[in-house]
């Protein structure tokens, strides 16, 4: 089996999808000849031509609006927003048009588009290249929200997203592009070539959207995370020696509530970890669901670990970033409660 970085896995997903279906088109800023700012689309234009992989003007609203029109016409656009931070000019198109086409047409039209966007921090990108806006999408009926944590899932989930008849927000944690970053910034990053989830089939496969994965089994406390924070949670469990069960959500909307409830009912404790700002972050929704469905099994209050309620600070990257130290202290807190 091939070994791939997440960049290569994302590219392979688009390659496989474009080869199987002539209606799949890829476009965005610099994705054609240049191959994307992170090189996720490198080589696709040379292979499939300028009508199926092409550059777009610097206009996120125009990019998404064009994709919606293409989808209504019958195409399947897979669009790249260069950074998740840049999607705000297109938010109206995403939430008022793409998310509502199926509902407003009574099912006569669907909107099979994928909006890929690098998300999160850990690369010293500062306030305009490090945001995690997933909660802005999970609040919108009609959207699906996917956040992979490794190359194997990235390819399978992206293929499933491209084949889905409805709009999918596909958030790619940029800190994971080249290795499973666990928050220990002082240590060298292990490359995906040395990680089991760096093994990626070269042909077609799909991972169902809406199904979480248990990355570490345990009986003392459940840690719920997604994206980069999955690896941080695994590192915190290892560092503290606490018998934590780590759930990788993979999909935020739809959400695999069954896996969450079964785990928390078993452990009796819950820590929720995400990189986005704490207030109104998706962790609040998870905590509410756990309280509603697992209240009589809880042995301690639910604890959230998240980013600060500030813009992402360039000078204090590793204080803002929920690293294994902060997650480890949360694990200790719920175990002592």
TrEMBL record:
<dbReference type="GO" id="GO:0009083">
    <property type="term" value="P:branched-chain amino acid catabolic process"/>
</dbReference>
<keyword id="KW-0614">Plasmid</keyword>
<dbReference type="InterPro" id="IPR033248">
    <property type="entry name" value="Transketolase_C"/>
</dbReference>
<feature type="domain" description="Transketolase-like pyrimidine-binding">
    <location>
        <begin position="4"/>
        <end position="179"/>
    </location>
</feature>
<dbReference type="Pfam" id="PF02780">
    <property type="entry name" value="Transketolase_C"/>
</dbReference>
<dbReference type="InterPro" id="IPR029061">
    <property type="entry name" value="THDP-binding"/>
</dbReference>
<dbReference type="GO" id="GO:0007584">
    <property type="term" value="P:response to nutrient"/>
</dbReference>
<dbReference type="Pfam" id="PF02779">
    <property type="entry name" value="Transket_pyr"/>
</dbReference>
<dbReference type="InterPro" id="IPR009014">
    <property type="entry name" value="Transketo_C/PFOR_II"/>
</dbReference>
<dbReference type="InterPro" id="IPR005475">
    <property type="entry name" value="Transketolase-like_Pyr-bd"/>
</dbReference>
<keyword id="KW-0560">Oxidoreductase</keyword>
<dbReference type="GO" id="GO:0003863">
    <property type="term" value="F:branched-chain 2-oxo acid dehydrogenase activity"/>
</dbReference>
<protein>
    <recommendedName>
        <fullName>3-methyl-2-oxobutanoate dehydrogenase (2-methylpropanoyl-transferring)</fullName>
        <ecNumber>1.2.4.4</ecNumber>
    </recommendedName>
</protein>
